[in-house]
Amino acid sequence: MLATALLATATLAGTLPAKGPCYHGVNLSGAEYGERDGILGTNYTYPSEATVEYFAAKGMTVIRLPFRWERLQPVLNAPLDGNELESLKASVELIRHHGMAVVLDPHNFGFYDKKKIQEMPGGDIAFGDFWARIALEFGNREGVIFGLMNEPHDIKAPDWLKVANTAIIAIRAMDANNLVLVPGTNWSGAWTWEVDRLGGGSNASIMRGIKDPANNYAYEFHQYLDADASGTHSTCEGAEQARQGLVRVTDWLRKSGKRGFLGEFGAASSEPCLAGLRQMMEVMARNGDVWLGWTYWSGGEWWPPDEPFNVQPGKGRDKPQLKLIEGMGRKLPPPEACNMANG
Q: Nearest 5°: phi and psi at 111?
């Protein structure tokens, strides 16, 4: 009876229109660094309290927290590593203590080590097992959001749909009602959402097939402003392309009755990059009925100081991109204004 009541409540909450974008924040890079056997503090790191406190003071309401699947679960279909789990839990507690939500982000691109998830025997089942274990630890925790996978690629949309649906079912089987962020394949780019680049169908056509018993999910998109939208160049020839990509995705979300979250976007601090960032955020701000929010890429103590997209504070000064995000974010409603079952 309890499960039935939870499902009914979640379904009702998931169908109400969101008043967002309510989430505005940053990625804190570091825990995804290094190889699977890396040493904490030497090869990879989690955010310090000083960093978390800094972004909270800037009005951020969410942190996307990348980490490595292999490090947290060294053997597929086996228990999570105790030490790594404690580090992850400590970071979640720290972020929540400072009043921000947190997106758990296995930053694996659709791979486990160097194996494509769809090419591993029972890869979808293994991925479901991983998320069931995460749900057991973080299920129904206020302010904890589940981001299924960072930027799956080299996997056709129907194959990725099967993997994603298996994970969602596994999460809900643990009676975890957390908001789930579902990416598409092909790096989950907004500008290519309607394009079939791998055969089998586009994200726009195939990813409509997501099945969530709790109906508490949103699609996660990424979008950069360089010419190829890779986020590897400091120039912003693709600013208009990025804006148009978000406009088209907004239309797709509204027609589909779905919600979106921009998990990664970023650009250098020069013009026209700042103008392009502003235009992207304005598209989402004007369409808060379908957009839950965004997390800029990126901050973090180990993020290279000369990286053009970096918003980690340096020499006591705020980065121009962060000033822009902060100013836009403070005009938007708080996370509790969003109608969601959890988080």
A: -125, 160
Q: pLDDT tens digits, residue range 221-259? A: 999 999 999 999 999 999 999 999 999 999 999 999 999
The CATH class given to the 20-130+153-337 domain equals alpha beta
pTM of the model: 0.93
Q: Which of 49, 264, 301, 336 is catalytic?
A: 264
Identify whether the C-beta of residue 320 lies closer than 8 Å to the C-beta of residue 276. Answer: no
The neighbouring-strand residues paired with 281 are none
Catalytically annotated residue among 151, 240, 301, 326: 151
Q: Is 240 designated active site?
A: no
The verdict on whether 264 is a catalytic residue reads yes
222: β partners: 189, 264
Q: What is the DSSP secondary structure assignment for residue 39, as one 8-state letter? A: P
- Cα dihedral 32, 36, 40, 42 sign: negative
Surface-to-core class of residue 53, CB atoms within 10 Å of its CB (0-12 exposed, 13-18 middle, 19+ buried): middle
